[in-house]
Known about the structure:
The structure holds two protein chains of two kinds.
Chain A: H1 16-28, E1 32-38, E2 49-50, H2 62-75, E3 79-86, E4 93-101, E5 109-116, E6 120-127
Antiparallel strand pairs in A: 1-2, 1-3, 3-4, 5-6
Chain B: H1 24-31, H2 33-43, H3 48-69, E1 81-85, H4 91-104, E2 113-116, H5 118-121, H6 129-140, E3 144-148, H7 163-176, E4 182-187, H8 189-198, H9 200-205, E5 208-212, H10 217-230, E6 234-235, H11 237-252, H12 258-279, H13 287-291, E7 292-293, H14 295-299
Parallel strand pairs in B: 1-4, 1-5, 2-3, 3-4, 6-7
Helix pairs in contact in B: 2-3, 2-4, 6-7, 10-11, 10-12
Amino acid sequence: MRITQGCFSFLPDLTDDQIKSQVQYCLDKGWAVNIEFTDDPHPRNTYWEMWGLPMFDLRDAAGIMKELADCRRVYGDRYIRLSGFDSSHGWESVRISFIVNRPKEEPGFRLERQEAAGRNIRYSTRAYATEHPEGERYQS
Amino acid sequence: MAHSNLQAVPSDVPREEVPSSVDLRREFETVDIASILAQLDRELIGLVPVKTRIREIASLLLVERIRRKMSLASTYPTLHMSFTGNPGTGKTTVALRMAGILHRLGFVRRGHVINVTRDDLVGQYIGHTAPKTKEILKKAMGGVLFIDEAYYLYRPENERDYGQEAIEILLQVMESQREDLVVILAGYTDRMERFFRSNPGFRSRIAHHVDFPDYTDAELLAIAELMLAEQNYRLSPDAREAFIRYIALRKAQPLFSNARSIRNALDRIRLRQANRLVSNLDRILTSDELTSIEAGDVLASRVFSGGSDNPARQS
């Protein structure tokens, strides 16, 4: 099951050239671009880990593409996303975020039904990947 | 992570027709380096060998650009440079112009200059240097990284100095990301020579060594007049005579740093001129008086009484 979230989620995966143009767009807007990765694909998992520090004051996408290549080398079997943080007054938040890397196999989610009192059913989703401990979830 | 079936846009866009001939003049005019070279001639006095060299580099890059258009060039030219010369000979100014030229010709994408020294690259404890250097390199991507007094990076007397680590990262990026940034090293001639001798990797990665000569007395005077004209001042004929003598005397003193010393001298001369004007309050000032620098303003300098005009030692 192909996980989608953030910007461009209805598009096929971006090529490196397309990622580069998006990054350049963010930099031209004055946003700081960050690289984050995770191996817990649950949609409510908002706490992804950061690759290095947020990159402020960059002018050209080449530096970020280099970092992304480094991150892929180490965590190529996980989800990696880029986010653009706008530090200007009044915004001070993430303006764009999109997935740039995903595991080869994405096993998807199990839907769990819990029978509660009075014939109520509670639903929850659990990623098959998270049955393994962190770091062993996507073996490539 | 290669999802060949999910890649968005196929890359086989119809290729542009490769031209077999190019109108050189039109090419020259479209990139408009003539104006930037003319500006260089106008605003930088003297420095004939440097200007010649920059003209040569600009021509080479223009030809290279055309060759790339005609798909004759396969490799990316090495553009890293080293600027050597005494203090105040215009190395930083030329580096800024160089970034402009490279940007016009499309050899750097953004054309900004990141000006750094050892402090910005080398960390203070183990593991601090690599992220620090990489941070600076990332900021310089698409532009020019100007490393002033580059020889301080290498400190042979301390074998545990972290400078070596910064040098290694620099060398690696200078080689592998040639199309992303241009590195310009600058420093005094003799120390740069020693630096290159102990770091042969740098010498071989630098394509253009440019040496900045000292200015002659006449050039220094021209620089002074240009600086004054920019600030709407002018030397009276007597003051001009005095300033010619000042240059000769100041040059013989230690710690003379060419155009920078001249700028400092002019700052102090303006100070004295202002003081002279304010000392007599009961009169009407004309704009002529405000712009004119008199011989007395120049002659009050300590240089004429055999003292030093070095600001560090002046009270």
